[in-house]
Amino acid sequence: MTSQNYEEFGALEELDSYLLDPSYEFGNCNNPDVCNHLSQFSVQTYEQNCAFEPSSASASGSHPPCASSSNESCGTQPDCLSDTTNNDVFNNCPLSLSSPYGLDCLDELKNDKLGEAEAAMQRSLAPDSLIDAHNNQLSSEFVLSHAAMEIVGRRDLKEMLVACAKAVGDNDLVTRDFLMYELQLMVSVSGEPLQRLGAYMLEGLVARLANSGSSIYKALRCKEPSSPELLSYMHLLYEACPYFKFGYLSANGAIAEAMKNENRIHIVDFQITQGTQWFTLIQALATRPGGPPQVRITGIDDSFSANARGVGLQIVGQRLSGLAQSCGVPFEFCGLAISSCDIESEHLGVRPGEALAVNFAMVLHHIPDESVGVQNHRDRILRMVKNLSPKVVTLVEHESNTNTAPFLLRFTETLDYYLAIFESIDEALSRDHKERINVEQHCLARDIVNIIACEGLERVERHEPLGKWRLRLSMAGFNPFPLSSFVNATIKNLLENYSRKYTLEEGVGCLYLGWMNRDLVASSAWI
């Protein structure tokens, strides 16, 4: 999705090839005036070009949906993933050049050429002249509504994105294609926060129309950066914004408070990722009066984290064991390379005499609930954990409502939520930061496209606000665990290192981290 001097019409052709998804065919746009400059797209789908085959592993490159007994395929994997050393297969995997996942194209377009080409496009397609042309030449069969013309005339990007999503939901072909054409002239991965976000959201709409959302989501790994590169992007986001640190510190504080009198501690982490969360907790436990407790961590893996690491869970165990040894903390690590949906209590190896803590950090929203299928793993896992009698359960989740929301509401919620995220990134990473686009592409864009383009089991990003999580946890038998004043003070100290636009709000057994007037991450503890 990159909008990456030619003569003006040459510039149009070049930018079309970068800005428009080749899997989407505008053949339904029957108005020649609206579609005059639109590139024609191949009808070939990602499946045809990428040869998807059944696989037990997730092909999304991200958190896979859970196995289901339905006939709907839960995981398929393109052949191009099987051997990324095969350059012909790898290079021919058909990602949209306008896609956030084909960002290699930015390296192929010089920044000055990009600016000149975009400027040429804007000069040749000034809004007034375009609207006048449409008014004079629109056929009687396909007339663009007056409201749509007014929206385009105002050039309000956010309003246009929402109107385009509404047209997609209403199957309003003329308005949809017209707005998509206008939007692709306005969005840019190198522009303002709304322009950058709009580029990824437009890609999601295009993928949704082409019924290729799941294919795009799965094919992303065809352009996946190397493991060290992906880890560097994740680390840059970790340092630039306090979202992950907020979740980790608040959860660790609740665990430390609940375990302050325990000598044998077992922590089950339902998404261990790189194990970063536990560094500070191990160091804190090492200084406990009377000596450190025995600590055992069971880390559950997922395909995205494994892909980012490039190696198995053993490297996480080695890092944590090395740190614990240097701190004088008796330590044991157990790695479980298994989908969270498949976890049963016997997998966790709970031992008598151990105080159990269970950590759900940005993972439960990937687990499908009753709205997806008859197997409600989301609530099943909570009930299973409650039956293990943990001393504390920590939950960190996006404060967003996209799980069961209808498409248009889901789109607007995603737009509002991620706009705050992009604005906060803009505050931390300068517009000319060479890795900012990579951070947004590889750490955020994948989720945005999945929320907009995919449905059913293929939509694995299913956020719920804390109010809904509170209801689920209460139904499973949990009660809020009050966070100590020390935890709150620690988070406040953390935020002093970041922009004053971040907000911290306290609730009963929970904390909200937000950007200006929007809560973004909620952290809570339960017993």
TrEMBL record:
Signal peptide: none
InterPro entries for this protein: TF_GRAS
Location of region: VHIID: 234-299
Segments of this protein annotated with the region SAW: 453-527
Pfam families registered for this protein in UniProt: GRAS
Region described as Leucine repeat II (LRII): spans on this chain: 315-347
Keyword Transcription regulation applies: yes
Leucine repeat I (LRI), as annotated region: 155-215
Keyword hit for Transcription: yes
Similarity remark: Belongs to the GRAS family.
UniProt name for this protein: DELLA protein
Organism: Salvia splendens
Lineage of origin: Eukaryota, Viridiplantae, Streptophyta, Embryophyta, Tracheophyta
